[in-house]
Hints:
It contains 4 helices and 15 strands. It is an alpha+beta fold. It has a single domain, classed as Double-stranded beta-helix (4-Layer Sandwich), CATH 3.60.130. The strands form 4 sheets. Strands 1, 2, 3, 5, 13 and 15 form a 6-stranded antiparallel sheet that branches. The longest helix has 12 residues, at 3-14.
Amino acid sequence: xxxxxxxxxxxxxxxxxxxxxxxxxxxxxxxxxxxxxxxxxxxxxxxxxxxxxxxxxxxxxxxxxxxxxxxxxxxxxxxxxxxxxxxxxxxxxxxxxxxxxxxxxxxxxxxxxxxxxxxxxxxxxxxxxxxxxxxxxxxxxxxxxxxxxxxxxxxxxxxxxxxxxxxxxxxxxxxxxxxxxxxxxxxxxxxxxxxxxxxxxxxxx
Length: 205
Ligand SMILES: O=C(O)CCC(=O)C(=O)O
Ligand SMILES: [Fe+2]
Protein backbone atom coordinates (compact mmCIF):
# COMPACT_ATOMS: atom_id res chain seq x y z
CA UNK A 1 0.00 0.00 0.00
CA UNK A 2 1.36 3.44 -0.85
CA UNK A 3 1.87 6.16 1.75
CA UNK A 4 -1.01 8.07 0.08
CA UNK A 5 -3.38 5.10 0.27
CA UNK A 6 -2.54 4.58 3.95
CA UNK A 7 -3.23 8.26 4.72
CA UNK A 8 -6.54 8.16 2.80
CA UNK A 9 -7.64 5.05 4.70
CA UNK A 10 -6.61 6.62 8.02
CA UNK A 11 -8.44 9.87 7.25
CA UNK A 12 -11.58 7.89 6.39
CA UNK A 13 -11.33 5.78 9.54
CA UNK A 14 -10.13 8.30 12.11
CA UNK A 15 -10.69 11.81 10.65
CA UNK A 16 -7.13 12.59 9.62
CA UNK A 17 -4.07 11.01 8.06
CA UNK A 18 -0.57 12.15 7.16
CA UNK A 19 1.33 11.40 3.98
CA UNK A 20 4.71 11.46 5.61
CA UNK A 21 6.74 10.05 2.77
CA UNK A 22 5.49 12.00 -0.26
CA UNK A 23 7.33 11.83 -3.54
CA UNK A 24 6.94 15.49 -4.39
CA UNK A 25 4.26 16.31 -6.92
CA UNK A 26 3.69 12.60 -7.30
CA UNK A 27 1.78 12.40 -4.00
CA UNK A 28 -0.57 15.19 -5.07
CA UNK A 29 -1.22 13.43 -8.38
CA UNK A 30 -1.78 10.19 -6.47
CA UNK A 31 -4.30 11.89 -4.14
CA UNK A 32 -6.28 12.69 -7.28
CA UNK A 33 -7.13 8.96 -7.51
CA UNK A 34 -9.02 9.22 -4.22
CA UNK A 35 -10.27 12.81 -4.14
CA UNK A 36 -12.11 15.03 -6.62
CA UNK A 37 -10.88 18.59 -6.13
CA UNK A 38 -13.82 20.98 -6.02
CA UNK A 39 -12.36 24.41 -5.29
CA UNK A 40 -9.45 26.55 -6.35
CA UNK A 41 -6.28 25.76 -4.39
CA UNK A 42 -5.10 28.42 -2.01
CA UNK A 43 -1.82 29.15 -0.29
CA UNK A 44 -2.14 29.70 3.46
CA UNK A 45 0.49 32.02 4.85
CA UNK A 46 0.78 33.79 8.22
CA UNK A 47 -0.36 37.41 8.17
CA UNK A 48 -0.77 40.09 10.77
CA UNK A 49 -4.27 40.69 12.12
CA UNK A 50 -6.01 43.50 10.20
CA UNK A 51 -9.61 43.14 11.30
CA UNK A 52 -10.66 41.31 8.09
CA UNK A 53 -13.20 38.48 8.40
CA UNK A 54 -10.64 35.73 7.71
CA UNK A 55 -8.82 33.78 10.43
CA UNK A 56 -5.60 35.66 9.71
CA UNK A 57 -7.51 38.94 9.77
CA UNK A 58 -8.87 38.12 13.23
CA UNK A 59 -6.03 36.19 14.84
CA UNK A 60 -2.90 37.18 12.93
CA UNK A 61 0.03 35.02 14.09
CA UNK A 62 -1.82 33.82 17.22
CA UNK A 63 -3.47 30.43 17.52
CA UNK A 64 -6.49 29.75 15.24
CA UNK A 65 -9.26 28.10 17.26
CA UNK A 66 -10.61 24.69 16.23
CA UNK A 67 -13.09 24.83 13.37
CA UNK A 68 -14.27 23.12 10.22
CA UNK A 69 -13.61 24.85 6.90
CA UNK A 70 -16.44 26.27 4.75
CA UNK A 71 -18.95 25.83 7.60
CA UNK A 72 -21.13 28.51 6.02
CA UNK A 73 -21.81 26.27 3.01
CA UNK A 74 -24.92 24.07 3.22
CA UNK A 75 -22.85 21.04 2.29
CA UNK A 76 -19.22 21.84 3.13
CA UNK A 77 -16.49 20.01 1.22
CA UNK A 78 -15.52 16.71 2.73
CA UNK A 79 -11.74 16.67 2.42
CA UNK A 80 -8.93 19.14 3.02
CA UNK A 81 -5.36 18.41 1.98
CA UNK A 82 -2.84 20.67 3.70
CA UNK A 83 0.43 20.38 1.83
CA UNK A 84 3.50 21.81 3.51
CA UNK A 85 5.37 23.81 0.87
CA UNK A 86 7.59 25.55 3.42
CA UNK A 87 7.35 24.92 7.18
CA UNK A 88 9.22 28.12 8.07
CA UNK A 89 12.12 28.13 10.56
CA UNK A 90 10.20 26.65 13.48
CA UNK A 91 7.52 24.03 12.80
CA UNK A 92 4.04 25.39 13.53
CA UNK A 93 1.55 22.79 14.76
CA UNK A 94 -1.75 22.19 13.01
CA UNK A 95 -4.28 20.97 15.59
CA UNK A 96 -6.67 18.13 14.81
CA UNK A 97 -9.56 16.89 16.91
CA UNK A 98 -11.69 14.03 15.57
CA UNK A 99 -15.40 14.08 16.39
CA UNK A 100 -15.20 10.49 17.65
CA UNK A 101 -12.81 11.57 20.40
CA UNK A 102 -15.10 14.31 21.75
CA UNK A 103 -16.79 13.20 24.97
CA UNK A 104 -19.76 15.48 24.29
CA UNK A 105 -20.23 14.38 20.66
CA UNK A 106 -23.74 12.94 21.09
CA UNK A 107 -25.05 16.26 22.36
CA UNK A 108 -23.85 18.03 19.21
CA UNK A 109 -26.80 16.57 17.28
CA UNK A 110 -29.06 18.69 19.50
CA UNK A 111 -26.92 21.81 19.39
CA UNK A 112 -28.99 23.90 16.97
CA UNK A 113 -27.35 26.95 15.46
CA UNK A 114 -28.04 29.75 13.08
CA UNK A 115 -25.40 29.80 10.35
CA UNK A 116 -24.75 33.24 8.88
CA UNK A 117 -23.87 33.50 5.22
CA UNK A 118 -23.67 36.31 2.67
CA UNK A 119 -26.84 34.98 1.07
CA UNK A 120 -28.96 34.78 4.21
CA UNK A 121 -28.97 32.49 7.21
CA UNK A 122 -29.90 28.86 7.71
CA UNK A 123 -30.29 26.54 10.66
CA UNK A 124 -28.08 23.55 11.32
CA UNK A 125 -26.98 21.50 14.30
CA UNK A 126 -23.22 21.22 14.95
CA UNK A 127 -23.54 17.57 13.95
CA UNK A 128 -26.21 16.87 11.36
CA UNK A 129 -27.04 14.12 8.94
CA UNK A 130 -26.20 14.43 5.27
CA UNK A 131 -27.30 11.51 3.11
CA UNK A 132 -26.99 9.10 6.03
CA UNK A 133 -23.57 10.38 7.12
CA UNK A 134 -22.64 12.58 10.04
CA UNK A 135 -21.60 16.10 9.11
CA UNK A 136 -19.70 18.18 11.65
CA UNK A 137 -19.98 21.94 11.19
CA UNK A 138 -18.31 24.33 13.60
CA UNK A 139 -17.14 27.84 13.01
CA UNK A 140 -17.78 30.01 16.00
CA UNK A 141 -17.65 33.27 14.04
CA UNK A 142 -20.29 32.19 11.53
CA UNK A 143 -22.61 30.26 13.88
CA UNK A 144 -24.76 31.25 16.83
CA UNK A 145 -26.41 28.67 19.08
CA UNK A 146 -30.19 29.00 19.30
CA UNK A 147 -31.65 28.77 22.79
CA UNK A 148 -30.09 28.13 26.19
CA UNK A 149 -29.55 24.38 25.84
CA UNK A 150 -27.70 24.75 22.53
CA UNK A 151 -25.65 27.63 23.91
CA UNK A 152 -24.37 25.61 26.85
CA UNK A 153 -23.29 22.78 24.53
CA UNK A 154 -21.80 25.18 21.97
CA UNK A 155 -19.80 27.09 24.58
CA UNK A 156 -18.46 24.05 26.41
CA UNK A 157 -18.07 21.01 24.16
CA UNK A 158 -14.40 21.83 23.58
CA UNK A 159 -13.57 22.28 27.28
CA UNK A 160 -10.76 19.99 28.48
CA UNK A 161 -10.05 18.45 25.09
CA UNK A 162 -6.60 17.40 23.94
CA UNK A 163 -6.19 17.97 20.20
CA UNK A 164 -3.42 16.17 18.37
CA UNK A 165 -0.59 18.45 17.23
CA UNK A 166 0.71 17.76 13.74
CA UNK A 167 3.95 19.52 12.82
CA UNK A 168 4.24 19.20 9.08
CA UNK A 169 7.68 19.30 7.55
CA UNK A 170 8.42 20.18 3.94
CA UNK A 171 6.45 18.05 1.49
CA UNK A 172 4.28 16.32 4.07
CA UNK A 173 0.52 16.32 3.54
CA UNK A 174 -2.15 16.36 6.23
CA UNK A 175 -5.46 14.95 5.02
CA UNK A 176 -8.46 16.02 7.05
CA UNK A 177 -12.00 14.68 6.81
CA UNK A 178 -13.77 18.04 7.19
CA UNK A 179 -17.06 16.30 8.10
CA UNK A 180 -15.74 14.52 11.15
CA UNK A 181 -12.60 16.29 12.34
CA UNK A 182 -11.99 19.79 13.67
CA UNK A 183 -8.72 21.53 12.95
CA UNK A 184 -6.89 24.68 13.99
CA UNK A 185 -3.41 26.17 13.95
CA UNK A 186 -0.95 26.87 16.72
CA UNK A 187 0.65 30.29 17.11
CA UNK A 188 3.25 31.08 14.46
CA UNK A 189 6.67 32.25 15.66
CA UNK A 190 7.97 35.52 14.16
CA UNK A 191 10.81 33.56 12.49
CA UNK A 192 8.28 31.34 10.73
CA UNK A 193 6.44 34.04 8.84
CA UNK A 194 7.56 32.38 5.60
CA UNK A 195 5.46 29.27 6.40
CA UNK A 196 3.45 28.22 3.33
CA UNK A 197 0.71 25.61 3.29
CA UNK A 198 -1.09 24.76 0.07
CA UNK A 199 -4.71 23.90 0.77
CA UNK A 200 -6.55 21.68 -1.69
CA UNK A 201 -10.24 21.04 -1.14
CA UNK A 202 -12.50 18.30 -2.45
CA UNK A 203 -14.63 15.21 -1.88
CA UNK A 204 -13.83 11.52 -1.66
CA UNK A 205 -14.32 9.74 -4.99
O1 LIG B 1 -2.27 26.63 8.66
C1 LIG B 1 -2.80 25.63 9.16
O2 LIG B 1 -2.14 24.70 9.64
C2 LIG B 1 -4.31 25.55 9.18
C3 LIG B 1 -4.95 26.86 8.82
C4 LIG B 1 -6.45 26.81 8.78
O3 LIG B 1 -7.07 26.00 9.37
C5 LIG B 1 -7.20 27.78 7.98
O4 LIG B 1 -6.60 28.76 7.46
O5 LIG B 1 -8.45 27.59 7.82
FE1 LIG C 1 -9.10 25.79 8.49
